[in-house]
Amino acid sequence: xxxxxxxxxxxxxxxxxxxxxxxxxxxxxxxxxxxxxxxxxxxxxxxxxxxxxxxxxxxxxxxxxxxxxxxxxxxxxxxxxxxxxxxxxxxxxxxxxxxxxxxxxxxxxxxxxxxxxxxxxxxxxxxxxxxxxxxxxxxxxxxxxxxxxxxxxxxxxxxxxxxxxxxxxxxxxxxxxxxxxxxxxxxxxxxxxxxxxxxxxxxxxxxxxxxxxxxxxxxxxxxxxxxxxxxxxxxxxxxxxxxxxxxxxxxxxxxxxxxxxxxxxxxxxxxxxxxxxxxxxxxxxxxxxxxxxxxxxxxxxxxxxxxxxxxxxxxxxxxxxxxxxxxxxxxxxxxxxxxxxxxxxxxxxxxxxxxxxxxxxxxxxxxxxxxxxxxxxxxxxxxxxxxxxxxxxxxxxxxxxxxxxxxxxxxxxxxxxxxxxxxxxxxxxxxxxxxxxxxxxxxxxxxxxxxxxxxxxxxxxxxxxxxxxxxxxxxxxxxxxxxxxxxxxxxxxxxxxxxxxxxxxxxxxxxxxxxxxxxxxxxxxxxxxxxxxxxxxxxxxxxxxxxxxxxxxxxxxxxxxxxxxxxxxxxxxxxxxxxxxxxxxxxxxxxxxxxxxxxxxxxxxxxxxxxxxxxxxxxxxxxxxxxxxxxxxxxxxxxxxxxxxxxxxxxxxxxxxxxxxxxxxxxxxxxxxxxxxxxxxxxxxxxxxxxxxxxxxxxxxxxxxxxxxxxxxxxxxxxxxxxxxxxxxxxxxxxxxxxxxxxxxxxxxxxxxxxxxxxxxxxxxxxxxxxxxxxxxxxxxxxxxxxxxxxxxxxxxxxxxxxxxxxxxxxxxxxxxxxxxxxxxxxxxxxxxxxxxxxxxxxxxxxxxxxxxxxxxxxxxxxxxxxxxxxxxxxxxxxxxxxxxxxxxxxxxxxxxxxxxxxxxxxxxxxxxxxxxxxxxxxxxxxxxxxxxxxxxxxxxxxxxxxxxxxxxxxxxxxxxxxxxxxxxxxxxxxxxxxxxxxxxxxxxxxxxxxxxxxxxxxxxxxxxxxxxxxxxxxxxxxxxxxxxxxxxxxxxxxxxxxxxxxxxxxxxxxxxxxxxxxx
Length: 1064
Fold this sequence. Notes:
Blueprint: E1 2-6, E2 25-29, E3 43-48, E4 60-64, E5 67-74, E6 79-87, E7 92-96, E8 108-112, E9 115-122, E10 127-135, E11 140-143, E12 156-160, E13 163-167, E14 170-171, E15 174-175, E16 179-183, E17 188-192, E18 204-208, E19 211-218, E20 223-231, E21 236-240, E22 252-256, E23 259-265, E24 273-280, E25 285-289, E26 301-305, E27 308-312, E28 325-330, E29 334-341, E30 351-358, E31 365-367, E32 380-384, E33 387-390, E34 392-394, E35 409-412, E36 418-425, E37 435-443, E38 449-451, E39 463-467, E40 470-477, E41 483-491, E42 498-504, E43 513-520, E44 527-530, E45 540-544, E46 547-554, E47 560-567, E48 574-580, E49 591-598, E50 605-608, E51 617-620, E52 623-630, E53 636-643, E54 650-656, E55 666-673, E56 680-683, E57 693-697, E58 700-707, E59 713-720, E60 727-733, E61 743-750, E62 757-760, E63 770-774, E64 777-784, E65 790-797, E66 804-811, E67 821-828, E68 835-838, E69 848-852, E70 855-862, E71 868-875, E72 887-890, E73 894-895, E74 900-905, E75 911-919, E76 925-929, E77 934-937, E78 943-953, E79 958-968, E80 972-974, ...
Parallel strand pairs: 73-79, 81-88
Antiparallel strand pairs: 1-2, 3-28, 4-5, 5-6, 6-7, 8-9, 9-10, 10-11, 12-13, 13-16, 14-15, 16-17, 18-19, 19-20, 20-21, 22-23, 23-24, 24-25, 26-27, 27-28, 29-30, 30-32, 31-34, 33-35, 36-37, 37-39, 38-40, 40-41, 42-43, 43-45, 44-46, 46-47, 48-49, 49-51, 50-52, 52-53, 54-55, 55-57, 56-58, 58-59, ...
C-alpha cells in the first residue's frame, strides 16, 4: 500500500510574490507488516544525483511502482508545471509529461495504486481546486473531479488503501478543518470527519498500517507539535503523543517499514532546521534520527521507495533555493550466507547452523528462535535437534536486517530414528545357561546390528541364546553409527533343587522297607522315579528290601535332580571303615580299603562292587566302591567308600583374548595346585613356552601339560578369540562453490570393538563421525574402537572452478536520457547452465543487457550449483553527457499593459540551436524565435502563457522545457472631481470607473460637509445624479466627500476617499 502526504505552504505577502515560505511535499510508503526494530544509529543519509529541473521550493512529488516523481513549485520568479521521474537503480532523472493545467505551487499530490494525482494550490492568480491523474505507462495527465472542498492551498493529503484523503489548509486568511475522501473507482469526493486538532495549514502527515497521521503545522497565532491518528474505518481522529522535536511547520516526512518520519521545517525563524524524528505507531513513541545530510531547509519534497526515503529541493533561506537530493536508509547487518548440518542420527541433538553476516554497528549477535533470545556472538549454533529455525541477526545497537530475516527459516532434518523392542526367557534350570533374548530393531539407515552388552559386541540377528544369569543391556546401531539403547534385561534362574530322604529299614530277609524323598528348590510341581524293581513314581517308595536306591526328580521345567540312599536291614551288622590308602598317581592301582564289623550274627559273607568277596580289598584305583555284608540270619548291611588320588593335582586356565584383529596380544595363565612339587609346564604354541603364563599369542586353541615331581600329569586347553577387523568406509560432500566452507565428510566404522571415537585433522579437530564446514583439501580421520584399535582414512574434498565474470562489450548511449546502451557479460568457471539477473529497471535475465540509459548496472550470475558472482559496469554516453534546457524570464508576472518579457537561456550542454515557441492560452502558437536569447510581447488578455524552449547540441541531441508567464490584469480607479447635474446631457452624473474592479464587492458613499451620508450604492455601474436621500432632494452646489470600498481580481480590499464639486 502506498501512502502520500503533500504539505503546502502559503503566506500572503504581495502581488509580486505571494509565497515567502516554501512548501514541504511528503511521500510516505506504508508497509503492511513489520517485525524488526529500527534504531537511529543504523540510519544514514546519502547524497544522490541533484534534481535536474532547477532549484525550487513548494513543489509536489509522489512515487509509483518504484519510481519517484517531482514537479511544479516556485523558484522566486515563476511557477512550474514540469514533472521529472527519478530512477533509484540508475540514480538518474528523466523528464516526463508536464502536469495538467497551469504552473502552480503549494499544491498537493497523492498516489492510489498505479496512478499519481496532483492538484489544488496557487497558479499566480487564483487558488485551485482542479485535480489531475498521471498514468506513468502512457505518460499522460487526465483531469478528474475537482476537489470536494473549496479551492485552497497548504492542504495535507495521504492515502490509505485505495482511497486518497485531502483536507485542512487555507486561503485568504481562512483556515479550513474539513477532510475529504477520494474514490478513483467512482471519481467522487466524500466529506469525512473534520480534522481532530485545531485548524491549520502546513501540517505534515503519513500513513501506516491502515491509518493516517497528521501533526505539526501553524495557524495565524500558533506553531503546533500535536499529532493525530485517523482511522478510515471508524472515521475518527485520535490524539497521539506529541511530535518528538520542537513545534514547526513546513516540515517534510515519509514512511516505510514500521515507522513514519518527520523532519526539517520552519521553527518560526524562516530559515528552517534539519533534525529528523521517527514515530513508532505500535508504541506511540518518537525517536530522534540523524540530521538530514544537506542544508537546513523548508519547502522540500519527500517520498519513499521500498525501504528508503528521499528528500530534496526546498530553500535554505527565503532567497536561497536548493536542488540537492538525498536518500535515507536503515542499514542493519546483512546476512551473507547460511549453512547447516542435519542430525547424524534420528533423535540426536547434534545439528548445527552457521550464519555468515556483516555490517551493522559493533559485534553482531544471532538468534535461531525468531529473536526470542540473542545469546550467540559467533554465528555458529550446535547441539540442535530436528525442526524449523527462524534466523535473526542483530548488531550491538539493536539494528537488524530490515523486515526480511524474520521470514528466513532453516529446517534441520534427521535420518529415520531407530526403534527397538525386546523379549526374553529366563533360565529353566539352575546351573545351566539356556536363557535367551530376542531383539526387534527397525528404522535407522542401512542394516541394523544389535547388542546385549551395551554395544561391546554386535550381531546382525536379533536372537541371543544360551545365556547365563545376569543383567543384559540392549543396544542397536545402524550403518551411520547411530546408537539407540533399549531395555536392561535381567536373566534369572530358579533355586537349586535339593532333595533329602528318610527311611524305614526292612526286616532281615524281608522287603518291607520304605524311603521318602522331600524336595525343595526348582520349579514345582515335581515328578518322581525310583530305581527299585517296581520303578515307583511317588515321593515314597515301599516294599523295599535292603539295598542302594536312587530316586530321580523332575520339576515343571523338566529340570532333573537325583539322590541315592543306602537302605540296610534292621539289626544288620555295622560296617566300620578302618582305613583307606590313596592312589599315588593316577592310574596307579595301589590303593587299599580295610573294614571291620560289629553286631550281626556270624558268619558273614562279603561282596564288593568290584566283585571281590574278601573283607578287605587292595590294589584298586581311584573310584567309589560299595561292600554288601550279609550275616547268617539274612540281615544285610551296605557301605559306600571312595578312593582319591593322593596326588590331587588340579589345573585351571584363564585366557586374555586378542585386543585388535590380526595382532598377537593374547595370553593364557595356567594355575596348577597340589601335586608333588616342583611343577613343570609345556605349551603347544609355536615357541613351546614353558612358563605358567603363555604370552604373545594370536587367536586359536592352546594346550598345556603340567607335570609334578612324581611324574603325574594334567593336560588342558583354552581358546583365544579376536574381534573382527575394524573397517571404515568414508563418504563426502564437496564444497558447493569456490571459496565456501560447506564441505562435509563422514566415516562409517564397523567391526572391531564398538564404542568408536573419531578425530579429524581439520583446524577444529572435530570428533564426530561427520566433519562439517570444510574447505577444499585433503582430510584425515582416525577411528579408534573400545580396545584402542585404530583405522585411518584420507578423503579429498574438491570445489568447482571459481565463477569469474568478464564484461566483454559495452555499447554507449548517444544522448543523455536515451536508452540504447548495452553490455555483455562472459562467464568463466562454475557449472553450466548460468542464470542472469541485472538490476536495470526491466530486470533483464540474459547475458546481454540492452536498452538502458547512462548509469551504473550490476549483474548477478548464478550457476547450476547456486553459486553466485556479481560484476558492475558503467554505461556512458558517446555524445551528450548532460543536456538540460532551462531559461530565465524577466519580469514574471507582467502587467496587462506592460506585457513584454525578456528570456535568457540558462541551458546546460554544448548547445548549437535554440527553438523558442510562444503559446496562447489555448496552446496554439503565437510566436517563435531561434536566437539564444529572446523577448516577446504577450497579448492583451490576462492568463498564464506557456513558453517552450527546445535546445539542440552538437550531437543532434535535444531537450526542452516549458515555463509559464503570468499576465496579470491591472487595477486602476478613475474618479472625476466635478460634475454638473443640470440636465443638459453632459457631465450630469458622478461615475467613478476603473480596471480590475470586481462586481461582487463594491460600495460607494457620498457625504456632505457635515458628515451626513446622502447617497449609497453597491453597484459598480451605479452613478450619482446629484440628488440626496434617495432622490427626494436636490443637492446644492458644494464640495462633497466620496468613499469607495472595493476588491481587485486577487480579492484584495481597497479603500479610496476623495471629493467632488457640484456646479449647477
